[in-house]
Amino acid sequence: MSGYIDRLLLVSLEKYIVKPFVHIIFGARQTGKTTLLDMLFPYCSLRYNLADPEERTRLLADPGLFRRECEALPVQKTPHFIIIDEAQAAPMVFDAVQILYDKDKIRWRFILCGSSARKLRKACANLLPGRAILHRLFPLTMIERPFADNQSSQELIPVTLDRPMHSVFPAADIEERMAYGELPGIILLPDDERKAVLKSFVSLHLEEEIRREALVKDWGAFVNFLRLAASESGQIVNYSSISRQAGLSEPTVKSHYQLLEDLFIGFHVPAYSKSLRKNLLSTPRFFFFDLGIRHSSAGIIPDTNVIRSDPGRYFEQWVGIEIWKRLQYLGNGQLYYFRTKDGAEVDFIVRIGNNIIPVEVKWSSNPSLRDVSSLVSFMRENPLIKTGYVICRCQRPAALNDRIIAIPWQTL
Questions:
Q1: What is the per-residue DSSP string for 214-248?
Q2: How far is the C-alpha of 139 from the C-alpha of 287, rounded, in Å?
Q3: Cα(229)–Cα(260) distance, rounded to whole angstroms?
Q4: Cβ-based neighbours of 270, under 8 Å, separated by 6 or more
Q5: Could you give the count of Cα atoms lying within 13 Å of 387 in the half-sphere of its Cβ?
Q6: C-alpha span between 387 and 411 (Å, rounded)
Q7: What class does CATH assign to 8-137?
């Protein structure tokens, strides 16, 4: 198919869209929600874009209008597909969808998209329990954009697919991925346009979202917070330090971090506590959902030269984001970090069911046990854990001892 762009979410939608449910799709701006829907539903009976002020005002001015326009569609044997973009801008649409769905589950098939959960959560909006399937769309994973054909082995977090993936996204080395991120709307652009679009993300997309929903009172103070939070991405959150630097109260800083999560711009990674050690840190780490957006939010022009100044730091963030995205699609797992007050740390702890997988990240192309002493200690203290991994730049998987394996990032 010309212009066909395959995504993990597309595989799930193809499976569930034929069933009589409402579908809610959440994802940050530029993750490809609109492109995905255009491809899956080239023809739909009604489509509303509530990011358009005129369309939004039209529906908000007459709360019953949306329902009446849906009811005006003729009865037919196949369902009418009705798409609502940026549905969070008019939470009353969810109530109307429930009324229509309960009236006739077959006549309409609703797909509601959103790039923010903040307004819905604050308004205690109706998310259609028992009627809806919730989907999330993220930046590209290694499954969707492998390093090279058939090299993604998915050793750590296998995602079972009903059909093969057909990637059309350009391959890239790790430095390019760390510099520009994995947003499809960015990586498909010519090189000279990527920096400009990433630079505008904060001012055009994030500011629009925040101003439209009146989420913060002082945009300038929030931008200052955003720059600090982006600069500290991947680190343990120090609320008091950011509070002092941003000139904001700690409760406001915590509220702003929650806002970034509600806008799908970032995520918290909690500390792993099921350990024999007592002196563990409990403050979470916070990651931006994409390194390209992280750079632009920090006021940095994305470039491979920036990455080369501190590759290990960005490599660890890229791996953590990749694992987190994979777990979200899997829908059965949690990402943690492990660090003690005396400085022993393991970068990531992955829990899938009852299976615990410790992961250390090293920029080295030839890591040794000396490089991962904390992982060795962690494995010794947790004898029931079968295998720990070191994700690095080695050419092929290599056993460092009988329980720790180094794997190339390309096979993550």
A1: T--S-HHHHHHHHHHHHHTTTSBP-HHHHHHHHT-
A2: 14
A3: 10
A4: 284, 334, 336, 337
A5: 11
A6: 16
A7: alpha beta
CA 184 to the chain's CA centroid: 13
User: Mind giving me the DSSP string for 24-44?
Assistant: EEEE-TTSSHHHHHHHH-SS-
Give pLDDT tens digits along the chain (412 positions): 445 678 888 888 888 888 889 999 999 888 988 888 888 888 899 999 998 989 999 999 998 999 999 999 999 999 999 999 989 888 889 889 999 999 999 999 999 998 887 766 655 555 677 788 889 999 999 988 887 654 555 567 777 777 777 777 888 999 999 999 999 989 888 878 888 888 888 777 777 777 666 667 788 888 899 999 999 999 999 999 999 999 999 999 999 999 899 889 999 999 998 654 555 667 899 999 999 999 999 998 888 888 999 999 999 999 999 999 999 998 888 999 998 877 789 999 999 988 999 999 999 999 999 999 999 999 999 999 999 999 999 999 999 999 999 999 988 8
Helices (H), 232-302: 239-246, 250-262, 291-297
**Domain boundaries of the chain, sorted by first residue:** 8-137, 174-411
Confirm if 49 and 159 have CB atoms less than 8 A apart: no
**Closest-CA residue to 315 (of 360, 259, 382):** 360
Phi and psi at 350, nearest 5°, equal -105, 125
Which of 116, 313, 344, 121 lies closest to 230 in space, CA to CA? 313
Contact (Cβ atoms closer than 8 angstroms) between residue 114 and residue 84: no
Which helix (DSSP H) or strand (DSSP E) does residue 326 occupy?
A: helix 311-330
Q: Give how far the C-alpha of residue 155 lies from the chain's centroid of Cα atoms, to the nearest Å.
A: 20
For the chain, the farthest-separated pair of C-alpha atoms sits apart, in whole angstroms, at 70
Q: 392 CB contacts (<8 Å, ≥6 apart)?
A: 361, 362, 363, 364, 365, 367, 406, 407, 408, 409
Q: How far is CA 62 from CA 7, 70, 118, 214, 239, in A?
A: 37, 14, 23, 21, 43
Structure token pair of residue 208: 């629009």
- State the pTM of this model: 0.91
